[in-house]
Amino acid sequence: MAINCGAGVPPADSLNTDRVERLHARYLQAGRLHHNSVFCTALLLSCLAAGAVDDPIVLKPTQDVTIYSANAAAQWPGEGARGTMDLQAKSGDAHRILIYFELKKEAKTPCTTAMLHLEADEIWPNKVKPALRIQRLLRPFSESSASWGLAAEGEPWSNLGGDFEPVVSCARRLGREQGKSQHLDIDVTPLVQGWQNKQYPNYGMLLTLEDGSEAYARFFSKESENAPTLNLYYAATAPKNPDSIKVEQLQPLGKKPEFNVEITTTNFDAALNKELKVPFKAKSGLGPYLWKFTDLPAGLIGTADGNLCGTPTKAGAFALTVEATDVEHRSARKKVTVTVGDGAPKVDANPIPVAAKPAPKKRPQDDE
After folding, report:
1. pLDDT 10s digits, 20-72
2. CA dihedral 52, 58, 62, 65 (to 10 degrees)
């Protein structure tokens, strides 16, 4: 990992030296710093920057919601604003949880340990104590409209139940005891460090129970005072997690979703010398899309965010080429025909003769 030991470093006398030294030792142990970088100030201090700060850094979700296999087509009304979230793996009635934490400011600096903390309203494990799996989401979701079939309004998942990396990111046993008012800590360090190191984009995580389990768990959501937290540890010691599971022990879940970008905008008409703005649309990829237009009619330009705009100055039918590329660098190309009319009334070169109307028949009283 390259270290930038440049600007933005607080004055040395404002630092907690012991904390910096502990942090430095932990980073050396994790292989994240070169041994000849005695302090490697910029990275170490940015970890503490928000002020030789709180350790751990505690984040709350910006989005969280439960999705249900029994209601794939749409979200239960108000589900995204509910104070609790449910987990269940029962066949035909599975419940999964989607959670998104925004990593910003100091939270972007790679941590040494990341723990997901959940407060449970109730847990009812069976005798097996099933695995609680953390899967990395591969596309964004909206808590106000996500369901088993939809990531967001009008945006279906490629796979029912969420688009996620099939290989589990992190896991632990659901719990040692059943009952109410429990809390769970889950070590999610590999997943979070991957986000922080920009190994992959952060779209959030999906929580699910081991398939076939009859267990059930209800956790408090971000709307509750017992909201989930993502705790990022640097020099401080993270809590032990005796129920952690080695991910190698778990089989991949489902199949990796296929994202095939498709441009949905079709042929359209435009008027000569009249201003227009046409937003182009795409689906099945991960937006926002980067757009490229070629072979445009005179007077029109295409923008990188997908708008065709301007004032056409020449009449005719023009086949332009448009390309859309999503954030994962998947792209699609399509020919779209723009027909620019001059606004003059059309004259038919071979008109069909109109038959003469027959004279109205006279009534007998008309001759009187």
Report:
1. 555 555 555 554 444 443 344 355 445 454 455 578 899 999 999 999 998 88
2. 170
